[in-house]
Amino acid sequence: MKGASIVAIIGLLVVSYFSLFHKIGKEPIRIWDESLFALRATYMAENNAYMPNFNKLHPALPDHRNTKMPLLTMVQAASFKVFGLGERSLRIPLSIILVACFGYFIFFAKNTLGNIWIGLFTVLGLLTAQGFLGDHMARFGDHDVVFGMFLFLSVCFYYRYIQNNQRKDIYLFGVFMLLSLLTKSILAFQFVPGIILYLAIKKRLQEQIKNPSTYIVAGAVLLVFIGVLGYLESCFPGFLERTWSYELGGRYSKTIEGHEGGFFYFLQLWATESFLPWFVFAPVGLYALLDKKGDERILDFIRLMCCIMLSAYLIFSFSQTKTFWYATPMYYPLAFISAFGVWHIMLATRNVTAPWKYISNGLLLLCFLMSLSNVIDKNINASNVGKDEQYKFFLKKLEKDSPTLKTFSIADNNFGTSAYFYTHQYNKHKNYDIEFRKGSKFEIGEIIMVCLNNTMDPIYTKYETKQLNQFKMCKLLEIVGRKNTDN
Prior knowledge:
Layout: H1 2-21, H2 33-47, H3 71-83, H4 87-111, H5 116-127, H6 130-133, H7 144-164, H8 167-184, H9 192-201, H10 205-209, H11 212-235, H12 239-253, H13 265-274, H14 282-287, H15 296-317, H16 328-348, H17 356-380, H18 391-401, E1 407-411, H19 417-429, E2 433-437, E3 447-450, H20 453-462, E4 463-471, E5 474-482
């Protein structure tokens, strides 16, 4: 069994590479959240300060007040300082943190739950789930996946504390809760009602209420968190109000930016696309709770997983704004429950005669290989990239086609953060002289890279142009004259 565990861990490292690191810089910086994180880290790396407003980077960027906590931005800024601006520098540090946390969880499964295989299956399920790896998730520079892992590990340490009553475990619970708070603010409390429910079921709630360690850890965590909030508010007046109205209360009480869904939004998401085929095994994992001969450590941990999932699911299902990445912290307990289902099937078929034993294990292996194949295929082949995100590819084409052309403008009348990231990257690291522009007023002789219809159409209406290059819908235009128009 020891040799098999070593082989499995080596296999896990290989899967981790193909799932998280292989061609991680291929996709351009995504518009909206990933580009926002990228520009915050850019400002922090170059100015040793936390950017409160994107106008500080460029006056044409939107007045988008910063409401994010700084922890992982500091990690990405450090990466930019060492490796320069780029997709890999933004994404790889978070992937490394995630793999390290996966490693600890496998250690936790072996030493606390007494079953390394369920830990391995949990991690393999996550590493081959399309929803866990797609846009806004583990292969990109957004913070939700690492935040969810911090939150999940805090629960693991609290479980160890309840089982063993060792103070170091509740202190580590506090550390990971603080990391969660400094990543996504009060969203870190989404599992707390579930933990309380679990303690009530175990009839240990009153014991923990009377426990001084509970108040020491809670007080220390809240003191540091409130101190950071106070510091950010003092530096950037209005930070707390903006955080509440835009990130928290505002999103909960009304639908923001068209992100809506019913009560079963997340359940449908997992069952139809984002966590297939592993979601199919979750009911088996729940059914296995009825097994009176099962290992009580694992069954008790499953109960805790159910409690924290119920807690988070109810909180976000009653929210008026719903996005698929809100469910990120729930992937971890869901993956564990599904992994337990896989393990239970393997146990149930252990003494089954051939060929049914081989058929059962073969189907499980096929599920894994097909999921991994889909992940690798998606990582190699280009996914859907919006017009707002084509600048990376067009700039690379332009480098090859016209290496001496380094002075021109990039015009983007949408949010513009992805466009500005590449403008800044090329100017800083490749000695280009690109001007980031908004609007529709240009000079005769000016050369403009444009990808969006709301920018391109006014140019065609007002000016005579000469097309110098093209990539898909993006064009490099030279303004050669003005049209006779009243516009």
